[in-house]
């Protein structure tokens, strides 16, 4: 009998790669999607006939309950969130309702309807804030520096409480994932903004240039505007990281795991590598703009993945340089 997996946030970057991964493993896959007038299923448009889709969102516990009751999953992957740290400053309550309380809605509905289901909760390195030690591991103290991270920390702690419940303990593993990217990443995230800008500049694209988060074309007068170029992050490949999510739910016991590359690079490093792919000097095309700088800075973020390597055998496959090249080449084709 096939295993069944239910994914919230199935249309996003991670949700789409996880769906492909699980289908290849022989799973039946279902997901929760929000209604939209265009019936656009985002990154799973090519998979929509292979999965079962339920309309709803994390602010609607009834929609979660209905999906779980009908599909009866063996595994639940909670990937849905308001996932932009910068945007979370402008919508603090919405971020908490979706990213924090929404996760608890998933835990509670699962406990009542499919109590034996194993749950993966998407936690984040943003919870570390400006950490006192580098690199960070599962014992590093949390100190969120933005509303998104605070909401994720609430969900993370509630997962731990549900796991330790003496009456109805749940199998909930949390992946503390450091930044993970791909050409399926939303264009308002800095890495994708860079790869798209490189493609538009190299291809001399003049029209239909994607807009940034403040409604302006990403490339204006041949320039890309970014925030603080010195921000330090640990960037990996999303396709590698969804395998780590699955591995956590194959373990005998639930736990928390850092998923990272053990390397740190700046936004400037990413710009340099991306423009080098097309033979250009990033310094000729980058401008900094305070509009893209968060009120509170996070980082440096660098993960130590030794625990998941030791216990589950996971390690990243794609290097930083390979990741940048993959993203740039994909966007060169898309924005020609």
UniProtKB/TrEMBL annotation:
EC number: 4.2.1.47
An individual GO BP term: 'de novo' GDP-L-fucose biosynthetic process
Superkingdom: Bacteria
UniProt keyword annotation of DNA-binding present: no
GO molecular function, one term: GDP-mannose 4,6-dehydratase activity
Pfam families according to UniProt: GDP_Man_Dehyd (PF16363)
Residues annotated as domain NAD(P)-binding: 6-327
InterPro entries: GDP_Man_deHydtase, NAD(P)-bd_dom, NAD(P)-bd_dom_sf
Cofactor requirements of the protein: NADP(+)
Catalytic activity field: GDP-alpha-D-mannose = GDP-4-dehydro-alpha-D-rhamnose + H2O
Keywords: Lyase
Stated role: Catalyzes the conversion of GDP-D-mannose to GDP-4-dehydro-6-deoxy-D-mannose.
Family: Belongs to the NAD(P)-dependent epimerase/dehydratase family. GDP-mannose 4,6-dehydratase subfamily.
Protein name: GDP-mannose 4,6-dehydratase
Organism name: Candidatus Daviesbacteria bacterium GW2011_GWA2_38_24
Lineage, top ranks: Bacteria, Candidatus Daviesiibacteriota
